[in-house]
């Protein structure tokens, strides 16, 4: 039998030779999100090899009801782009629209061009690295971090530069914090995790905590940088929903920085806010404070004149990140 965890990764073009050569009768792939973002061919490779998903699907609500995952509160925190960032988002969105039109006609037979993929990545960084996010993160931590409560916070940053900037601010403010990312040596990473397990505090990270690192004691998540990539935000939410055998009464809290803007009418700005609210709506759906979270979310739908039924996953805002 062949068992593949995080099966979405094996759909990458680099794995096609493996799938063509390894012929095993019994095959099982595991993933919360097996579809590869904007990679029709990669998703097709997975389905052709493993067949269709097994029914019935076991989702977040079932896992929480069965006490396989803990309950959580979800807090929407708004951060606005500044004027320069708004202008840059609109400008790059226009360029992406032109390139997407060329690709869209034959995307089922052709992989996304590298230049279009890079354009999507570059634009997403405007939202993820908005200059006001560091200030907002400090505000949230100062209001909610309890040094006497043995709290364990995971803070998700976009890149090392953003992480180091926030780390410096937290140190200056006297908060116990450490960092964890792929470029650090193994000993430093192990030391950071050990300290986090023993004493709690604030652990700053980037993508490397999305998969493969189990941190059941984490009870708070602060998502500074997120995107429309469903796999990314589902995995980040899941990091703090793990059962902690040492804390039977664990309840998680998730603080999510939602990017908005002052411009309420531009269609590309509305698209950005719609991306953010799609994620927020999904996070809120199974939270303990669903009604409270939805008040803020619905106010934003109204403010930007976005119809809630239109705020759904839109594939041309999403890409598959390769390690």
Describe the structure.
By secondary structure, the chain is of the alpha/beta class. The chain folds into three domains: 2-57, no CATH class; 63-81 and 128-314, P-loop containing nucleotide triphosphate hydrolases (Rossmann fold), CATH 3.40.50; 86-124, no CATH class. Helices cover 44% and strands 14% of the residues. It contains eleven helices and eight strands. It has a six-stranded parallel sheet, sandwiched between helices. The chain is globular, with a radius of gyration of 20 Å. The mean pLDDT is 88.
Radius of gyration: 20 Å
- Second rung of CATH, namely the architecture of the largest domain: 3-Layer(aba) Sandwich
CATH topology (level 3) name of the largest domain:
Rossmann fold
The largest pleated sheet is described as:
6 strands, parallel
CATH superfamily of the largest domain: P-loop containing nucleotide triphosphate hydrolases
Q: Averaged pLDDT, please? A: 88
Spatially, the strands of the biggest sheet line up as: 3-8-7-4-6-5
Top-tier CATH class of the largest domain: Alpha Beta
Distinct helical segment count: 11
Q: Estimate what percentage of residues fall within beta strands.
A: 5-15%
Number of domains: 3
* Overall helicity: 40-55%
Distance between the termini: 26 Å
Number of strands: 8
- Low-pLDDT sequence parts: none
């Amino acid at each position: 039998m062949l068992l593949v965890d995080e099966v979405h990764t094996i759909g990458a073009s680099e794995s096609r030779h493996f799938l063509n050569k390894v012929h095993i009768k019994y095959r099982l792939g595991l993933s919360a999100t097996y579809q590869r973002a904007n990679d029709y061919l990669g998703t097709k490779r997975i389905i052709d090899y493993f067949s269709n998903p097994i029914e019935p699907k076991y989702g977040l609500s079932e896992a929480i009801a069965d006490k396989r995952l803990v309950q959580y509160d979800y807090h929407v925190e708004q951060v606005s782009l500044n004027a320069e960032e708004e202008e840059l988002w609109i400008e790059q969105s226009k360029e992406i629209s032109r390139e997407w039109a060329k690709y869209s006609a034959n995307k089922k037979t052709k992989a996304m061009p590298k230049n279009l993929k890079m354009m999507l990545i570059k634009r997403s960084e405007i939202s993820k690295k908005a200059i006001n996010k560091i200030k907002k993160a400090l505000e949230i931590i100062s209001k909610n971090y309890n040094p006497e409560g043995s709290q364990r916070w995971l803070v998700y940053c976009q890149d090392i530069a953003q992480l180091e900037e926030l780390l410096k601010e937290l140190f200056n403010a006297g908060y116990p914090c450490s960092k964890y990312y792929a470029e650090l040596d193994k000993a430093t990473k192990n030391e950071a995790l050990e300290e986090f397990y023993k004493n709690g505090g604030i652990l700053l990270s980037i993508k490397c905590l999305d998969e493969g690192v189990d941190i059941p004691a984490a009870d708070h998540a602060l998502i500074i940088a997120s995107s429309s990539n469903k796999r990314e935000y589902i995995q980040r939410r899941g990091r703090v929903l793990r059962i902690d055998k040492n804390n039977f009464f664990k309840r998680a809290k998730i603080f999510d920085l939602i990017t908005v803007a002052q411009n309420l009418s531009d269609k590309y700005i509305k698209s950005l806010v719609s991306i953010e609210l799609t994620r927020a709506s999904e996070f809120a759906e199974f939270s303990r404070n669903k009604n409270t979270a939805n008040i803020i979310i619905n106010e934003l739908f109204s403010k930007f004149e976005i119809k809630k039924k239109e705020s759904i996953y839109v594939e041309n805002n999403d890409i598959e990140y390769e390690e």
